[in-house]
Amino acid sequence: MNLNATLWAQSIVFLAFVVFTMKFVWPPLTKALDERAKKIADGLAAADKAKTDLALAEKRVGEELRKARESGAELRGAAEKQASGLLEEARAEAARIVAAAREAAEAEAAAVSQRAKEALRDQVASLAVAGAERILRREINPAVHAELLANLKQELN
After folding, report:
1. 81-112: per-residue pLDDT in tens?
2. What is the pTM of this model?
3. Could you tell me the sign of the dihedral formed by the alpha carbons of 141, 142, 148, 151, in that order?
4. Residue 134 burial (10 A CB sphere; 0-12, 13-18, 19+)
């Protein structure tokens, strides 16, 4: 056998193998690699998009939390203001009621005192009339008058 012929035969077989591989084997492998590269690129793009979406969502959540805190602070401030207003109104109302009650009590006390004075005057007047009657019924005698006045004094006490 000739070494040159074997070398040429192996070269032709190798060339046929390369052509066969390039025509039938290489395109599906290239296609699979391209599809895999596309899937990886799509996955990375989706991951980047998800990352940006997550950042935007976190930003929106932070903004919503800030708004909620501000709204809560405003509501709490309004409620505290309303509560202090109601408390002041209640205090004013209580002070007015206490003042009215004091005035009523003072008026009632003055009325009772006035009635007691009038009743006392009436009793003193009737006792004075009774004493004068007794004095006039008896004869005029200083000792008897002094005794009658003493008795009258005891009746007044």
Report:
1. 999 999 999 999 999 999 999 999 999 999 99
2. 0.41
3. negative
4. middle
